[in-house]
Predict the structure.
Amino acid sequence: MPWIAHTGSMLRRYVQVAALLALILVEVPAAVVSFCLLVLTFGLGVVPLFPLQVRLARQVAERRRRLVGEWLGVRIDSPYLPKPPPPQRQADGMYRSHRTLYKSPRVPAWNDRWKWLVSDPATWRDCVWLVLDPVVKLGLLPLFLLLPDRGLRVYGMWCELVLAPTAASRLAGQVNHLQRVRNLAADTQSAEMRRIERDLHDGTQARLVAIGMTLGAVEQLVDTDPAAAKALLSKAKEASSETLTELRTVIRGIHPPVLAERGLADAVRALAIDSPLRVHVDVDLPHRPEPPVEAAAYFAVSELLSNAARHGGAATATVDVSGNGSDLRISVIDDGMGGADPGKGSGLMGIERRLAAFDGVLAVNSPPGGPTTVTMSMPKVLPNHWAGSLPKLPRWKVALVVTLWLTAWCPLFPQGIVAGIFKVIGFEEKAWFLALYMPEPWQWPVILFMIALGCTMYLTATLLPVCHNKERWWAEATPRRLWFSR
Amino acid sequence: MGGGDPSSSMVQPVNRVLVAEDLYLLRDGLVHLLQAHGFTVVAAVESGPELLKGLIELRPDVSIVDVRLPPTFTDEGLQAALAARQQVPGLPILVLSQHVEQLYARELLADGSGAIGYLLKDRVFNAEQFIDAVRRVAQGGTAMDPDVIAKLLASNARNEPLAALTPREREVLEAMAEGRSNAAISQRLYLSESAVAKHTAGIFAKLGLAPSDDDNRRVLAVLAYLNSR
């Protein structure tokens, strides 16, 4: 019975409208208190009251954002700027705020907080919303009563207009996020560098010193005791071989050669072959991702496979690498005994950190008894459009463009500009200039028309491919490589 | 007989060698080493396209090829070797690399025609063994790096028939997989040739492989078995 459902939804709408109207009883006192606090803050200088006002307004506004999201399906994100970080203690034990030094962090922290609250446009937009919202609701009252559906939609639009983050605050949030990711990536990288430095210092370098010393001894012995020299030489040879083996391990930890040579698909296959597990590999990527992405994906798969073999007691595993639009997805499933926990150290945290540099996330599903499924996703790491997947110019348009390029000179130069010059200098010869055969009053209009026609033809020939391939132009003009590769 | 382009190499000793290596010092060293052991270096090239051309046109008795070559510095040499062997089946090629990958070993062995080698560059240090490997490949045999074999056995760790081998049999298997003949194995492990033959028969029985008298064929069978996971 549709009408019952219909009445039900109508009824729900009316209840929602009633609730929104009832909320005026909260908003008006909140607005009055806010107003008083603002007057006290800025009129009388009782600045400590300002954070109270902001907190009050934000509470009310946040609740309304959630309500509008739940009832009307209008998603409104929080627009506030991120909190300032706590003041940093300097080497001399002082805290700096602008050009003043403080002994305790309280004043600098307050300064930061004040600046954060006052400079956030969302603070003031909240105030505007708090004052105007009751008015808007009362103004919408007739619409609410007659067409509650439409009325609620208009109300949602109003809320979105004032409460949603502005482009600037969205960008500020993004910058903040990027900064955090950058710091994380830099940290990870420097830790990696230190590890490599240690490996080279303790292993390779020490061995090379030993080889050098052995060779020095050989130099001294070679005349007096050739047999001993020979024995030392073979020792040095052995040591150099060991050094190479060690160096190979270090290189593998930096960037596995097979990854550099063959790309992700074959590198994962090589991992599968090297693993004691029976690994089934399925890679579906039309092109190679950027090297840093490949490396992160490779190390993640490598870690997961060795985890599965070492801790999980698995016998078989499946690795699936695929692209979903511009997202890279990797899943590793093994039939081990499960119980893997990213919180408990292990390699999973390392993988998470590595992926974080690309906004990647890792989901682990590992019930006790298995199987373990680890899914990783790195958003927007593959180029949006693989070159070639974009539409090409159809043949008739190509023909048109070529024809235009070949013929546009004719109206523009001989029929237009040259005829115009002949006319200006009063040259008698009409030659093949069409305009000069026209009756006198028509000559200039025809000349100008010819010039315009020529220009239009050139313009069309230029714009036709540009407009058609706009997406391709954009895709090619957008820098994708933010890093240097090989 | 183990494939290869045999009629000439059967009659006269193998001596026409091609060397492909982009580092001048190493290339020069290889050329000298080979010349000192009686080989004639017919070409010493330094890039992938040159290598492929040389392999096809000169058909050397054996070629020593670096995996990473210009212009791409990826696996140019390996690709050239595979392409040449597709055109000239069984063309003897010994691939050298700074690192060994089972993936590459599999690709090299995939055509099953032998006359193939895959060694770490460090193996050049031991000139005798290296020259021995070059000769083996030229004669249609196989020369796999001990590292490849070790990895191969490690990834077969859960293979039950392999686990049933005695330690001695395992040693023999390793040496055999590297491409050594019974005589060479007996020398290396200080066993009599008949003892090696006995171990070999035991290994083949345990792994369920058909025995064969031909050294090269036997090696290929073992490698195929290990790679068949």
In short: The mean pLDDT of chain A is 86. The interface with chain B takes residues 237, 240-241, 244-245, 248, 251-252, 257-258, 260-262, 266, 269-270, 273-276, 278, 315 of chain A (CB under 8 Å). DSSP finds 17 helices and seven strands in chain A. Residues 167-224 of chain A form the longest helix (58 residues).
